[in-house]
From TrEMBL:
Lineage: Eukaryota, Fungi, Fungi incertae sedis, Mucoromycota, Mortierellomycotina
Stretches with biased composition (Basic and acidic residues): 99-112
Ranges for domain Helicase ATP-binding: 140-314
Gene3D superfamilies in the record: 1.20.120.1080, P-loop containing nucleotide triphosphate hydrolases (3.40.50.300)
Protein name: RNA helicase
Boundaries of every Helicase C-terminal domain copy: 336-511
Biased composition (Polar residues): 50-66
Biased composition (Low complexity): 28-43, 67-86
Pfam families, sorted: DEAD, HA2_C, Helicase_C, OB_NTP_bind, WHD_HA2
Length: 762
C-alpha cells in the first residue's frame, strides 16, 4: 500500500464487495414512448426494459409504443390568474415588431472562420455516435405533434446538447428561440460553448447563454442556454415569453425551487398563448414545452403537464462494480483523500471523480492532494486535482474536460453538479462521500440553514453511473451497504424545504397576486408561505393587503435575494450605495481569503491587516480597498493570502450591480465616506431577522426562533462578545454556527424594521 499516505493519515479504507454491478448494452439506444393513460404495469414494464437495456427492433434502435394514446390537449384549465387576459399595449407592440426589432447585426461580430466550420464537421461524427442519435427522427416527430413531451435520458446520452440542435435543424426555431434552462450556471456556460462548437459559429451568435451577471446571447440567438432564475427574470418584461418557440426545462428531476416555479409559469403561459391563437390571434405562435430528466420517475411530470407523452432514451453504460465501506466513516473528507491515493497506486489508468459538498471542502481537498502527492514514490505518476464549482472562472472550469498529460491521473473534485448536469470524459473511478449540502427552512421559527445531509438513493445511483460511461468502472461508496438501504429514495423538492421569499416576490412581480392558488406541482406548506409573506411585508415589499409595493417592484428588478435587494434600495436613502454594492459583491463568493493548511498561522496573521473591530462585512470592504490600491497585484495577493480568482469574480459582480443600480435610477457612486456605521445599519434593514443578542452566560440567542448560536471560527468576531450581532447565514454542523458576522447596537433593531419589531412587541 502507499506508505506515504498511510503513515501520514494512519488509515486505510477497507471496502467490502457487495457484488452489485450495473451494465447496459454499450452500443444501443432505446427511445420508448409512453402515455400517462397507459396502465401502471405497462409503464413499469417500459421502465424495466429501459433499465435492463432491452432493445426491441423495428428496423432501427427506436421503439414506438403503437398502442399509446395521444397526449391530452393542452387546452385544459389552468389556475393561473393571467389566463384569458388580453395582452397589454406594450406586449402588442412587442409582438408586432418582434421580427423588425431584431438587430441586423449580431452582438458578437466575430466572424465564423474556416477552423470553426471544420471543427463542426469533425464533431458531426461524434454527434452521430451518441446514443440519442438513433432517436433523432422520432423526437422531432413527437415534439412537432405534441404541445408537451417528457424525455428521460441518462447523463451522457446527449439529450441536452443534441435535442436543441435537432429542433433547430427541423425548423422549430423559425418563429422564436429555443430555450434550455439549467439549475446551475456552470452547466449553462459549458453546454452553450459545446453546442456553439458543434453548430460551427462563435459563442453568442446562433448559440448563446445567459446567467446572472453574464449574458453572451443576442436577439438573434436561435439556441439559448440559461439558468432557471434568468428565465423567471425575463417574465418580468415578457409575461408570455413571446420570443421563445420551444422551452426545454432540463434537469427537471432536481426539483429546484426556481424550476418548480417555472413548471407552473410555462404551463400557464402555454395555455394562454393557445387561447389567444384559438381566438384568432395570428401574431402569436404556440409554445412547445419539453421536460427533460435523468431519472426514471417521469409519470409525475407527465401527469402535471396534461398527460404529456414520455420518451425514454437509454445511454451507454458499462459494468460498474460498487464497493461499500465495511465500517461507517467518521470523516468522509479524510476517507475520500485516502481512497483517492489507494486508487492511484493500486488501480489501472483512468480518472477519479470525488463528490464533495461545497467549495470550501473542494479547495481544502485540492490542497491536501497537492501536499501529499509530493510524497508519492517516483515510480507512481502524478495525481492532478481538478476542482469545479460555480464561483470559478470559465477557463479554470474547462480543465476538467481536458485529457490528463501522459503518465498522470486527474482527480475531479465536484459537488453534485457532476451527477447529471455535466458529463466528464475518462472517469473510471467514483468516490461517493454520500453527502451533499442542502438548504433547510424551519417555517415555524423562520430559520434558514445550510446543512450537510445524506444524499438520496437516486443520487447515489447517478453518482455510481459516472464511472461507467466509457469503460467498466468502480464506485467506492464511503458508507456501508446498510446505510445505503436507509437512504430516502428521492430528495425532497426544494419547494417543500426552502425559504420561499424569492419565489413569492417573482410570482407577485409577474402579476400573480394570490400565490396560494398558484399551480404548484408540489404545494409548499401553508406555514412556509405565510412566514415568507410575513418577511416580505416586514421588508416593505408587500402592503397591508399583500399587494406588491413600489419598493417590492424595485426589489424584484435586482438579481439578488430580497434581503440584499432591500439593502441596495436602503443604501440610496442612507447614502452608502457604493459600499453596499461592494460588500454584496464580496459576499457572492464563499470567501476571498486563502488559508493553506500548512500556512494557516501565516494566513491568519496576514488577515489581521484588514480586520475591522466591527466584524466581517467591514473586514471584506477593507480587503477590497487594499486590493484595489495595489491594482490587484498577484504577488500582493499571494503574500496576503487573498484568492485573486475570487476577487476578479467580485469585480465582475460589482460591475453588473452598478449597471442594475443605474437602471433603477440610483447613483452607485454615492458614498458614506468614513462613517461606516451607516453601512451596518443599512445591511440591518435587510437582515434584521438574522440577528442575535448576547446572553448573561456569554452565549448568543437568535432573535428569531430563540436558538443558541455560536460565531463561526472563521469570523473576525470569533471569541469576542458584543451586545448584538447580525449574520449572513446559519450553518449547522456540530452546533448552530453563524457566518458573516458584524457587531450591532441593540437599539438599532427597532429602527431597522419597525413593522417587524412593532408587531412582535405588540
Amino acid at each position: 500500500m502507499f506508505s506515504s499516505i498511510q503513515s501520514a493519515k494512519r488509515k486505510v479504507i477497507t471496502f467490502g464487495d457487495d457484488g452489485e454491478q450495473v451494465s447496459r448494452p454499450t452500443n444501443s439506444s432505446t427511445a420508448t414512448e409512453s402515455s400517462s393513460s397507459s396502465s401502471s404495469s405497462s409503464s413499469a414494464k417500459k421502465h424495466n426494459d429501459t433499465q435492463n437495456g432491452t432493445t426491441k427492433h423495428n428496423g432501427s434502435n427506436i421503439v414506438q409504443d403503437k398502442t399509446s394514446s395521444s397526449s391530452s390537449s393542452t387546452t385544459a384549465s389552468s389556475t393561473s390568474e393571467e389566463t384569458g387576459q388580453r395582452l397589454s399595449k406594450k406586449q402588442k407592440r412587442q409582438l408586432q415588431h418582434q421580427q423588425d426589432s431584431r438587430p441586423k447585426k449580431l452582438i458578437n461580430k466575430e466572424p465564423t472562420t474556416e477552423a470553426m466550420t471544420q471543427k463542426a464537421k469533425e464533431l458531426k461524427k461524434h454527434r452521430n455516435s451518441l446514443p440519442i442519435y438513433t432517436a433523432r427522427d422520432i423526437i422531432i416527430k413527437e415534439v412537432k405533434e405534441n404541445a408537451c413531451v417528457v424525455i428521460v435520458g441518462e447523463t451522457g446520452s446527449g439529450k441536452t446538447t443534441q435535442i436543441p440542435q435537432y429542433l433547430l435543424e427541423a425548423g422549430l426555431a423559425a418563429h422564436g428561440t429555443i430555450s434550455v434552462t439549467q439549475p446551475r450556471r456552470v452547466a449553462a456556460i459549458n453546454l452553450a460553448r459545446r453546442v456553439a462548437e458543434e453548430v460551427g459559429t462563435p459563442l453568442g451568435q446562433k448559440v448563446g447563454y445567459s446567467i446572472r451577471f453574464d449574458d453572451t446571447s443576442s436577439k438573434d440567438s436561435l439556441i439559448k442556454y440559461m439558468t432557471d432564475g434568468i428565465m423567471l427574470r425575463e417574465l418580468l418584461s415578457d409575461r408570455l415569453l413571446l420570443r421563445y418557440s420551444v422551452i426545454i426545462l432540463d434537469e427537471a428531476h432536481e426539483r429546484t425551487l426556481r424550476t418548480d416555479i417555472l413548471f407552473g409559469m410555462v404551463k400557464g403561459i402555454q395555455k394562454q398563448r393557445q387561447d389567444l391563437i384559438d381566438r384568432g390571434r395570428k401574431d402569436i405562435q404556440p409554445l412547445k414545452i419539453i421536460i427533460m430528466s435523468a431519472t426514471l420517475d417521469a409519470e409525475k411530470f407527465s401527469e402535471y403537464f396534461y398527460g404529456a407523452k414520455i420518451m425514454y432514451i437509454s445511454g451507454r453504460q458499462f459494468p460498474v462494480k460498487i464497493l461499500n465501506t465495511v465500517e461507517p466513516q467518521s470523516d468522509y473528507v479524510d476517507s475520500a483523500l485516502v481512497t483517492a491515493f489507494q486508487i492511484h497506486q493500486d488501480e489501472a489508468p483512468g480518472d477519479i471523480l470525488i463528490f464533495l459538498t461545497g467549495q470550501e471542502e473542494i479547495e481544502n481537498m485540492e490542497k491536501l492532494i497537492e501536499e501529499y502527492a509530493t510524497d508519492l514514490p517516483p515510480t507512481v505518476g502524478k495525481l492532478i486535482p481538478c476542482p469545479i464549482f460555480a464561483a470559478q472562472d470559465t477557463s479554470t472550469q474547462q480543465k476538467i474536460f481536458e485529457p490528463a498529460p501522459h503518465g498522470t491521473r486527474k482527480v475531479i473534485l465536484a459537488t453534485n453538479i457532476a451527477e447529471t448536469s455535466i458529463t466528464i470524459p475518462n472517469i473510471r473511478y467514483v468516490i461517493d462521500t454520500g453527502c451533499h449540502k442542502s438548504r433547510g427552512y424551519n417555517a415555524k421559527i423562520g430559520i434558514e440553514s445550510l446543512l450537510v445531509e445524506p444524499i438520496s438513493k437516486s443520487s447515489a445511483r447517478q453518482r455510481m453511473g459516472r464511472a461507467g460511461r466509457e469503460a467498466p468502472g468502480l464506485c467506492f461508496r464511503l458508507y456501508t451497504e446498510d446505510s445505503f438501504d436507509q437512504l430516502e429514495e428521492d430528495a425532497i423538492p426544494e419547494i417543500k424545504r426552502c425559504n420561499l421569499e424569492s419565489a413569492i416576490l417573482s410570482l407577485k412581480a409577474t402579476g400573480i397576486d394570490d400565490v396560494t392558488r398558484f399551480d404548484f406541482m408540489d404545494r409548499p406548506s401553508k406555514s412556509g408561505l405565510l412566514r415568507s409573506l410575513e418577511h416580505l411585508y416586514a421588508l416593505e415589499a408587500l402592503d397591508d393587503e399583500g399587494k406588491l409595493t413600489d419598493i417590492g417592484t424595485k426589489m424584484a428588478a435586482f438579481p439578488v435575494d430580497p434581503p440584499y435587494a432591500k439593502v441596495l434600495l436602503q443604501s440610496e436613502k442612507m447614502e452608502c450605495t457604493k459600499e453596499a454594492i461592494e460588500i454584496i459583491s464580496l459576499l457572492s463568493v464563499d470567501t476571498i481569503f486563502s488559508a493553506p493548511s500548512s500556512k494557516r498561522e501565516e494566513a491568519n496573521e496576514a488577515r489581521q491587516k484588514f480586520t475591522s473591530l466591527d466584524g466581517d462585512h467591514l473586514t471584506l470592504l477593507n480587503t477590497l480597498r487594499a486590493y484595489e490600491s495595489v491594482k490587484g497585484d498577484r504577488d500582493w495577493c499571494r503574500e496576503n493570502f487573498i484568492n485573486s480568482r475570487h476577487m476578479r469574480h467580485v469585480l465582475d459582480v460589482r460591475k453588473q450591480l452598478i449597471q442594475f443600480a443605474e437602471r433603477s435610477g440610483m447613483d452607485p457612486k454615492k458614498t458614506c465616506g468614513h462613517d461606516l456605521e451607516i453601512v451596518l445599519k443599512c445591511f440591518l434593514a435587510g437582515f434584521f431577522q438574522n440577528t442575535a443578542l448576547l446572553q448573561p452566560d456569554g452565549t448568543y440567542k437568535s432573535i428569531l426562533g430563540g436558538l443558541t448560536v455560536s460565531v463561526h471560527p472563521s469570523s473576525s468576531l470569533f471569541g469576542k462578545k458584543r451586545e448584538a450581532i447580525m449574520y449572513d447565514e446559519l450553518v449547522f454542523t456540530t452546533k448552530h454556527f453563524v457566518r458573516g458576522v458584524s457587531a450591532l447596537e441593540s437599539n438599532w433593531l427597532s429602527q431597522a424594521a419597525p413593522k417587524y419589531f412593532g408587531q412582535r412587541h405588540a
